[in-house]
Amino acid sequence: MAGNTIGQLFRVTTFGESHGLALGCIIDGCPPGLALTEADMQHDLDRRRPGTSKYTTQRREPDEVKILSGVFEGQTTGTSIGLLIENTDQRSKDYSNIKDKFRPGHADYTYHQKYGVRDYRGGGRSSARETAMRVAAGAVAKKYLKQVHGIEVRAYLSQMGDVTIDKVDWDQIEQNAFFCPDADKVEAFDELIRKLKKEGDSIGAKLTVVASNVPVGLGEPVFDRLDADIAHSLMSINAVKGVEIGDGFDVVEQRGSEHRDAMTPEGFKTNHAGGILGGISSGQDVVAHIALKPTSSITVPGETINRQGESTEVITKGRHDPCVGIRAVPIAEAMLAITLMDHLLRHRGQNADVVTETPKI
Amino acid sequence: MAGNTIGQLFRVTTFGESHGLALGCIIDGCPPGLALTEADMQHDLDRRRPGTSKYTTQRREPDEVKILSGVFEGQTTGTSIGLLIENTDQRSKDYSNIKDKFRPGHADYTYHQKYGVRDYRGGGRSSARETAMRVAAGAVAKKYLKQVHGIEVRAYLSQMGDVTIDKVDWDQIEQNAFFCPDADKVEAFDELIRKLKKEGDSIGAKLTVVASNVPVGLGEPVFDRLDADIAHSLMSINAVKGVEIGDGFDVVEQRGSEHRDAMTPEGFKTNHAGGILGGISSGQDVVAHIALKPTSSITVPGETINRQGESTEVITKGRHDPCVGIRAVPIAEAMLAITLMDHLLRHRGQNADVVTETPKI
Amino acid sequence: MAGNTIGQLFRVTTFGESHGLALGCIIDGCPPGLALTEADMQHDLDRRRPGTSKYTTQRREPDEVKILSGVFEGQTTGTSIGLLIENTDQRSKDYSNIKDKFRPGHADYTYHQKYGVRDYRGGGRSSARETAMRVAAGAVAKKYLKQVHGIEVRAYLSQMGDVTIDKVDWDQIEQNAFFCPDADKVEAFDELIRKLKKEGDSIGAKLTVVASNVPVGLGEPVFDRLDADIAHSLMSINAVKGVEIGDGFDVVEQRGSEHRDAMTPEGFKTNHAGGILGGISSGQDVVAHIALKPTSSITVPGETINRQGESTEVITKGRHDPCVGIRAVPIAEAMLAITLMDHLLRHRGQNADVVTETPKI
Amino acid sequence: MAGNTIGQLFRVTTFGESHGLALGCIIDGCPPGLALTEADMQHDLDRRRPGTSKYTTQRREPDEVKILSGVFEGQTTGTSIGLLIENTDQRSKDYSNIKDKFRPGHADYTYHQKYGVRDYRGGGRSSARETAMRVAAGAVAKKYLKQVHGIEVRAYLSQMGDVTIDKVDWDQIEQNAFFCPDADKVEAFDELIRKLKKEGDSIGAKLTVVASNVPVGLGEPVFDRLDADIAHSLMSINAVKGVEIGDGFDVVEQRGSEHRDAMTPEGFKTNHAGGILGGISSGQDVVAHIALKPTSSITVPGETINRQGESTEVITKGRHDPCVGIRAVPIAEAMLAITLMDHLLRHRGQNADVVTETPKI
C-alpha cells in the first residue's frame, strides 16, 4: 500500500528509481512566505552526491534539482512544491548478471516476492538513489527551521568499523570527506577505506545527528512521540539497522539516579535523555545516533539463489561506496529536519492557545 | 495534534490517565470472523500487570478488560472494537509533593510547557499505565496473526544492568518473574533487583522481540518500511531509548562480506538482517532489540525546579518498579504484533493480485 | 479497513452498536485549557435523543455521557478525551424476523456481504444510534469554536415532504419539536407526521446548516478543500443522499454574472457561494443543505430476500421515526462543527506566520 | 496544512500552477503488474483538454503526460508512479489587471488572506488547470478497475442552464462536444453556448457519473462510507457546489415505501439508493450527480475590491469556457474512479478472509 509519504502537516512524497528517467518529490504543507530557490537545496544535494570525493562512488550525477511549483517570485506560496531531478547518468549497462539473481543483503528478493515484478536496474526503487529527494525536501525544512526558529540540524560520522571519534569539533565536519568532527581521526578513516577498496569489501558506520535550539513542546504522545517519529524517519533511511535517542543502549547499564537529568533554574545539568522527555522535546539539544550496515554491493562473491530457486553466486560490480554511512550524513540531517518541521506545525495547530507562566529553562 | 493513534488499516487509538476513571481503546480495522473474548486479552494483561510478583510494583489493579462493541456472538464483526479497563485502585493520595515540582527524568516539565496544564496524579497520560491498552489491542493482533497465519510474536529480557543472558530457551520465559529465557541468570537478576530496592534506585534493561513465521513481503517502502514502522512502534513505548533490527549497532564494525545473509535453496544461512531487507520482510524471523532506561521514580533525592522556576529537590515515593523493562515484555510483543498486523492488511490491499513463480525460501 | 475516524488534527473515532453494551468515542487533538463538563455535551445529546417528543421514536435512552479522560480539574489537558454512553434500553427482543432477512433500504445486505457476519440487533453498527457519539464530540467542537473564535454552528429543518419553510427565525428553532425556524409551518409538519404514523410510512427531509462568524482562510486545497471535507462529513450521516454548499443545485441554471458574489469594502453583497471560494472559507456564513431519505423502517410490507437468496417479505416493527431528518438537526451541527474545528487547527499549523495587510471584509 | 493528497491505499498527490513550469502527480499504491503507458492516460487528457472544440477555451496545451517512474518494461511495479505535464502555453501576459484586484467568485481573495501571497497568473494553484493531473491519475484507476474487475466509470452532461436531457444513450456521449447522451439536445446546448459567448456570460451545469459492475462490499463505515468519500472527491472538483447519490435531493419528497429498493432473487428492482446502502456498495450501479457553478471568468464587469480594500471593478478577459461543466465530465469520471479504486484496495486489506454463502444479487 501507499508508503512513499512521510509527515502529517509537512508532508513529503517521493518517486523515482535508480535508473529511471527522473526522481521527484512533492512537499505539501510548507508554510507560505519562505524565500526559496534551487540553490537552497543544491548545497545539501552536493554533499550527498556520489563522486564528490575519492571515498565515495564514482557515479557522476549532477543531481540538479528543479522547483516546478509552489514558489512564486522567490517565495513559497503555501501550495504544494514539486521538485525534480533528472537522471542523467543512466549508463546503458548489462544487467543480465543481476536480472535473474537475488543479491544477498539486497532488497532484490523481497521486492520480487512482494510485487512479482521489479526494476532490477541499479536496484530500482530500493536504491539509495531515492534519498536525493529526501535531502532536497530536508533542505527546505532545514531552511525554515533555521530562519524562523533558529533551529539547526547537523550530523557527523562518529564511528566507522572500529575507528571511533574522540571529540566533536563542529568546524571540522565540512573540512574532510568523512564528515568527521575529529581531525585526528581523518587519517585512520582514510586508511580503512583504502584497505576496503583493495579487498573489495565494505564496512558499517555510526552517525550522530543533533538538532540545537529546539523549542520545548514538540511531540504528540502517546504514539506520535517525537522520539518515535524520529526513530521512524531515521530507520527509513537505507541501510540503517539501529536508532538511539540520547544515551541509547547505554541506558541498559545505567542507574536511575545517574540517568535522569537534573534541572536547575539555569537549565538541565546533563542530557542523557537526548532532549526528549515523555516523547516531547525538552528544549535541550535533540540527539540521535544511527547504525548503518556495510553495503552488500561488494566484489567478494556471495552465495545466493536465482529466480528458479537454484543455488548460484553473485558479484556486484559497479560504482559503489565501501561505506554508505559517509554519504548518509546529509540524509540523516534531512530526515531529522523533516520530522522536526512536521512536529513544529503539528504542535502549533493544537497548542496555539497555550500560555504558561513557567520560565523555560 | 492528534497523536494517540497507531496503524493505518489495523488502527489502535487509546485514551486514559494513570489515575483517571478508566483506560480505553478503539481497535479499528480488525478483520471480521475472528473468535474473540475478554479472556484472549486478559492473559497478556495479567503478564503486564503490576503487583504480580515481588519484583514489580505493588499497585494492585485487576486490569479487567471489557469488550464494549465490535464482537457479536463471540466473533469480530469488522466494525470498531471498543475496549475498557476501569481504574479501580486510584488511591486518594497526597500529590502536593509533585503538583508544583517537575520530577527530573519525567515528562512533568515537557507536558506542562506543551499544554499549559497537566494531570499530575501518577503522571497522568504520561504514565506507563496507558500501555495496558496497548497490550489489550496487541493481544487481538497476536491472536489473528497466530490463528490465520501461524505468526508468533514473543519477547524476553536479554539484559538488565550488566547482567546478560547466555542462551534463549523459549520454555523458560514464563517460568520466572523476569521473562528471562536463561534459567541460570534468574538468580543474578533477582539479586540485582533486591539490591536496587534497598538502595531506592533503578536500572535499565534490554529486551528482544521476535516474530516467527512471518511471510515474505510485508513493508511498504520507502517511508513505511517494515523496519521503520517497527522502530516507530517500539520507540513509542515509555522509557525506550533505542531500537535495533537484527544485528543493530553491531553492524558498525561488520564487513559487508560478513553481514549479508547468504541465500540457498533451503533458505537463508544466517539472519544478520533481522528478517527485513529493503524495508520488506524476508520470511525469516523478524528480530528487534530495545533499550529501556532506568525509571526516574526512585527514592534517591533529585535536583529539580518548581513551577516558579526555582531550585528544589524531589523524591518519588510510591509503588514503583526498580526495572520497568521487565513489565515491558508483553508491551513490546503487543507493539510488534500491532505493526505486523497493520502491514499484513496493507500488503493484502495492494498486492492481492501478485503471483510469483519463484519459490519462497 | 479502518474507517471509524474523522478529522486530521481534531480527530474523532467512535465505536458502538445499537444494542451493544455501550457507545464510545475518542476525541484526539482537542486544544488544552478548554473548560469542559458532561453538561456541555448533554444538551445536544438531549436534542438528538429519541423519545423526547411525540414526533420521534419512543425508545427511551437517557444517553448520559461520561468523560473518562482528557479533562482534569474541569479543563481539557490536550490529551485524548474518552467518552462513554451506556446502552441502558437494550430490550431483549425477538430478532428472528430480521436475523435471516435483509430489510430493503437498509444496510443489512451490504454489511452481510462485506463482513460475512453482522450484528442484526437493531441494525448493529449501521444504526443511527452511533450518531449519539458524533453529537457528543461535536458539542466539544462547538464549545471551542464559540468560546475561542465566536463561531456559531446551527441547523434547522427546511423541508419535509412537500412542506417547505418560508422564513428563518432563529429564535423559533428550539420552540418546536421539528427544529423548524418558521412558526407558521409547525402545524403542517405536525399534520404530515401524524398522517404518516397512521399509514406506517415515512418521509424525507431537507436540513440547512449554517456556521456564522467563520474566519477567512479555512480549507486546504486542492483535495482537502473546506467544501469537500464538509461534503464528506455531512454525507457520512446516516440517510443523507445529497449535500449542497451555498446555492447548491440551483447553480445549474444560474449565470456567472448572477452567481458570483460582488465584493465591497463593507463586505460581500450576496452569499451564493455559501461562504467558500476555491475551497477556502471567505469569512461569510458557511451554508450547507442536506437531503435525508425517508427511513426504510416502516410497517408497510417490503419485498426482499433471505440469506438463502429466496424471495420473502419483511415488516419493520419497533420504535421508529417517521422522519429521521428531524433528529438529524443536532447531528448535522455536530458534523459541521467537527470539520470546521479540524480545519481551524490545520490552518493554524501551516499558516501561523501569515500576516496580510489587506483588510478582511 | 497538507491537503494535496486524496486516498488512503491508492493515494494521489498533485502539484502545479496554471502558469508554472509543470503539473505533476504521484500515484502511490497502484498494484503491480498493470500494463501502463502514456497512451492510457492521454485519451482522457485529450477529452479534458481545452481547445478541443469550439465550445471550450482556446488555450492550446498539448497536455502531454510523461511517466517518470513506477513502470518498468510496460508494467507497474508497485512503487510510486511519477507523472509530469509541462506547461507549454504560458503566454507572457499582462497580469496587472488581476494582480491587485480580487475577482469576485474566484479564489483570489481567499488565497490571498490564507497565505499572504499568491501566484495570480491564471489563478495559480486555484485554477482548474490542476485537474489535468486528476484525469491522468484517474485514467490509471479506470484502467485497473476495468481490466481486473470489469468496473466501468462513465459520466455525461445531464443539464446545462435550463436545458435538460431526456434520455441516456451511452453511445452518443463521445459523438458530440458536450458529452451529451441525448442526441436531440445537442442543438439546444449549442445554441445556449453561442448565446452566452455573445453576451460574455457563463452558465452552470449538472453532470451524472455512473460506475457499473461495482462489487458489493466497498465502503468503510461509519465515516469513510463510500458515499461520504465520493462526496468528498466530487466536491473537491473546482466549481462543484452540490453532490447527490442516487435520488439525491428528490428523496426529500419521497415516502419510505417508495424509496427503498425492493430485493428479489434476480436483483434489486429499482436503484433509488444509487448503489450504496449503509455506506457500502450494493452491487448495483453507483450513481452520483454534481452541480457545477457558472464560471466567474466572464467579460461582464464585476464589482469588487483591491488589495487596499477599496472598491473597484474587474473584467476577466482571456480564454475561458462559458460552461466549465462540459470539460468536467472526464474529471468527474477520474475522481469517482480514484475513490472506487481506493476503496477496492481498502476492502481487500481488511476483508480478504470473508466468505459468505449468501448469493450476490
How would you describe the overall organization of this protein?
The structure is a homotetramer of 361-residue chains. With 361 residues, chain A is of the alpha+beta class. The first copy, chain A, starts with a strand and ends in a 10-residue tail after the last helix. Chains in contact: A-B, A-C, A-D, B-C, B-D, C-D. Chains A and B meet through β1, α3, α6, β11 and α7 of A and β1, α3, α6, β11 and α7 of B. Chains A, B, C, D: Its cofactor is FMNH2. Chains A, B, C, D: Belongs to the chorismate synthase family.
**Which stretches of chain A are low in confidence, meaning pLDDT under 50 for 5 or more residues running?**
none
CATH class of chain A: Alpha Beta
Largest interface: A-B, 125 and 124 residues
Order of helices and strands of chain A: EEEHEEEEHHHEEHEHEHEEEEEEEH
Span of the ends, CA to CA of chain A: 44 Å
Name the assembly state: homotetramer
Number of domains of chain A: 1
Helix and strand content put the structural class of chain A at alpha+beta
Number of helices of chain A: 8
CATH topology (fold) name of chain A? Chorismate synthase, AroC fold
CATH level-4 homologous superfamily of chain A: Chorismate synthase AroC
Question: Would you count the extended β strands of chain A for me?
Answer: 18
Please state roughly what percent of the residues of chain A sit in beta strands, choosing from under 5%, 5-15%, 15-25%, 25-35%, 35-45% or over 45%: 15-25%
* Strands ordered across the widest β-sheet of chain A: 1-2-3-7-4
The rounded Rg of chain A comes to: 21 Å
What proportion of the residues of chain A is helical, as a percent range?
25-40%
Arithmetic mean pLDDT of chain A: 94
Largest sheet of chain A: 5 strands, antiparallel
Note the overall shape of chain A. globular
| CATH architecture level-2 label of chain A | 4-Layer Sandwich
